Amino acid sequence: MKAPLVKVENDQPGLVRVVAADLVSKPTDLKVEARIDGGAWVPVPLVDNGAGKVARFVSVKPEMTQIEIRATDEAGNVASTSAPLIRGRADAAAAGASSGCGCSVPGKEGTDAGRSGGLLAALGLVGAVLERRRRRARAKELAAASLMVLAGGTSGCSCAGGDNTGDNPLPPDNNPELRTYVIGSYTSAAVATDGTIWVAGYHEGDPSTGSTDDFFGDLAVGKYDTAKQAVDWKVVDGVPDVPLANRKKKSTGFRDGITDQGDDVGLYTSMVLDAAQNPWVAYHDRTNNSLRVAHYDGAKWSTHEVDKVTNGWAGRYTSMALVGGKVAIAYQTIEPGTGGAGKNKVRLAKASSDAPSSTTDWAIEDVAVEDKYPCVDEVCTGGSKCFLGDKVGVGATCQATTSGCAPACGDGEACVKGATGAVACQKLKPKLAQYHNGTGLFVSMAAAGSDIAVVFYDRFKGNVRAASNKGGKWTVTPANAPLDGWTGDAKSDAGKGDRGIGATLAIDASGNWHVAYVDGLKEGLLYKFVPGGDLSKAAPAVTIDDGTTADGSVGTKFPDGQHLVGENAHLVVAGADVKLVYQDSTAGTLHWAKGSGGATAKFTRGIVKQDGTAGFFPRIVGNQVVNFYRQRGTTLNDDGTPSSDAVILGNVRVLPLP
After folding, report:
1. How many Cα atoms within 13 Å fall on the side-chain side of residue 638?
2. Cys-Cys with 497: which of 55, 117, 521, 622 at CB 3.0–4.6 Å?
3. Interatomic CA distance for residues 630 and 615, integer angstroms
4. Stronger pLDDT, 368 or 92, i.e. the higher one
């Protein structure tokens, strides 16, 4: 037996439709429950939607931020999913004002028809589906689950099966080479002076065997072949050293024929080319929670660790630049803070030589530090766990657990001892979230000579912040006086909202900063001009794309309402122009924008058309754009002909920009 499948979809403003299905159980035999923002679980029964069809619905209100769904079959197998209701961090005061669990069954309480259908559309796009399997799944089953998150435009979206057991054997030695079905997400790219395009990304795996053992997690890098219109991928890190006699496939070609799992590496890539036009790639090692770097010297690749923390992680949201001809990496770290909180940092690692080859060849300094931010599981030590603290996790802290709670704590809870010595069950912080509630997300760095500038998203405070090291000392906008977004003052915050998702920065020849980022509540893409890099003189934000039309004209207004735009934007300065590329996460399309920049900037924009669900992790390279896409496809038989097993194909395209 395996657990049922569950997902959430937009139905109409104010309503979330819950889809729960099982190959064996009848719909009426499934127990489906929902909760909002960590509240109590509430049953979600089947109801008649008025059109002669039976379905499940949950009513949601504007201030609600996160929905969780779980479905249980007769055998006790449980499947669950979680999804954000908005991209921006909700105002804690507003969320705290809602009563009870915050969700209801239509017919028992009224719905809120005023909620934007576009915001709810995110549910079906970025909700991660978790299947707790009792046995290994076939490739096409994995593909079917993956389809539920195809349009998720976020770096944090994933789809995976857990608790896999069974005895599905590896293929025999005479099987063909491994095939790169899904490769290139977390994309970064750079173009050399001779026009060569280098691309780096994450190799998610090879489902052709039908075994989850073949979902690897490697760093892959390659040159773009213009004749083949494809990247000539090579796995650079993540493949274990396996003797030839122990390999399960041919010994040449992609991944050297090795099917064994290595460390899960290659997330959050960034790339820069050195003076010799050879690539350096920074990336996150999820197995060891560290920052790593890979370098190609013109003949071979080498990799090494740059930074690591004992509890927490280093190396997410990397951004690279050359500073004085040497490689520099800006990135996020999280480690234990004070009082059970998490310590969030934006750090900078600068190479001490032109060719660093080990951890000791890097000088590491803190750019911004916040010591008392909400915990994550990784920073909790000594058996402690990360507890929610309040409905939206703003007060989440690590606390020691104990025994003795009666009745026993339920799902998503643990037993703790209070100040009086009494024990009680408290809610744990949910593990699933689109973004964690901290600072240092979407780090973007640019350099002008020896001067370095960094912008980043502070989700805990709901704003975009900036840092500059002019004069050799870091100056950081404080959380209560950010570059844009919430300041912590209710009067001055009116109308600003949560700003900073997808932050991207470029510096022009005159030292002016150009910054783009998302308004996480209005769901549009904004631009800000900072003359001379003087943060005190930053101009008011200009709207690039409000998410309501394809190109800004009335005739291209979206019939389905507000779209989520601006995810993983990339901004560059080209002469007098500011160019951007970004994703429409609702439609799964790649968009471009171009303008003259400055305090009164105006932009023209449009869509780069292509097949599949695309626009993930776009990067401008000269007059072209690199982006990752996903689409339906099939596995191949040994003779190269298509089989009947469906899979998800994912790869990188390079397309011309208008």
Report:
1. 8
2. 521
3. 10
4. 368
